[in-house]
Amino acid sequence: MVLSTRNIELAIKDDTPHRWFRNVLHIWPKYTSMAPSIAILGAGPSGLLLGRMLELANIAYVIFERDISGNESSSRAGTLDIHADSGQLALQNAGLLDQFKKLARHDAHTILADEKGKVYIRTSESDEANEDRPEIDRKDLRALLLNSVPANRVRWGLKVQHVQRDSDGLISVHFADGNIESGFRLVVGADGAWSKARNLVTSAKPQYSGLHYLTTTIDPQNPFHSIAVSLVGKGNYIAFGGGKQIVSLKLGDGSYYVGVGLRLPENWSSEYAAVLEDPKAIRRLLLNDHFNDWPKLHTDLIEHSDGTFYAWPLYAMPTESLSWRTVPGVTLIGDAAHVSTPFVGEGVNCAMTDSLQLAQQIVKHGVDDLDRAVSGYEKLMFPRAIDLISRSAKSGELFFAPDAPRGWLKTFAGIDCD
């Protein structure tokens, strides 16, 4: 128990110490029953869904998030497809599936083309996959999950510096501003690829894939917007070849997300920081140095984009690292456990499945046996995560191969282009 400043002041100033002890004893049962034994690092989809599941089970928890608020509106947000047998199943167990279906887009199609514009795959807006894998903006999914937990469960503006095991065997969370929260029986790292809790369970770190995306947007008020509509429509358009890629996705507000995929050095974004901050300079560099032999059909998406460009280097955990022994008091979910490249579209689905299975294990074993709950969850998570990382790595290799998209189409779509 951490005593409040008011109780400490009372102990010092009161001439009768017995009065202070009576006050402490009076609030002790209420305080301990409300104090959360579980801390979740990160208010992304996996952290919030875990919080929602614990909320439904009346298990106390707290979520620490470095963002100042839940608003997310940059071109880094993008869109997600939520699968019926994983992400949607998790939302159903959380009592949120009906709300999700009201927000999701069930009419998104997918177009796959080579760098010259030859289309190899064009799915229909009425395709069954749109029901099994409807699209939702990442920011809308986060808002849905955030609204499903009480506001006081999320503490904003707290950047985790490190997590440690204290002398009493419990876990404490240390923040960049010097604050410390202690006394947790379980800390769940849901804080992404560079989780501050990971070092307590494994020394492994994400490995750079060799690939970057540079992302931006096309606003609905942009004069070029109508041309983007004719090319991309309501769904996704991907052009790839020669080890490069241009992708555009329709977002819920009518704007288009544009991603440029390239093989770049890991430190590219720091070396070209000044270029990234200058919209004209980054567009000129991409068009002149990387896509000068691509047709205007595709390069217009770069030239006429109007949003800020963001660098997104792609990392993945080594699959051999997903075999750690359960560590008392700490576990990982989502990208913190198994960050992967995004080439099979299952990252957030796998993350929400993590949250569902961890919550189910906690409910099954109870808060008095959290170590067994974590062990049960990790046994379920490891094979799923290894499969995700492996398939995505293979897909990425073919996406960025010199002969793309032919190898990818043959391997993943069964289409022989020869």
TrEMBL record:
Pfam assignment, any one: FAD_binding_3
Keyword Oxidoreductase on entry:
yes
Keywords in alphabetical order: FAD, Flavoprotein, Monooxygenase, Oxidoreductase
Q: Which SUPFAM superfamilies match?
A: FAD/NAD(P)-binding domain (SSF51905)
List residues traversing the bilayer: none
Gene Ontology MF, one? FAD binding
Q: Which residue ranges does the record assign to the FAD-binding domain?
A: 38-202, 329-363
Q: Where is the signal peptide?
A: none
This chain's protein is named FAD-binding domain-containing protein
Lineage at the top is: Eukaryota, Fungi, Dikarya, Ascomycota, Pezizomycotina
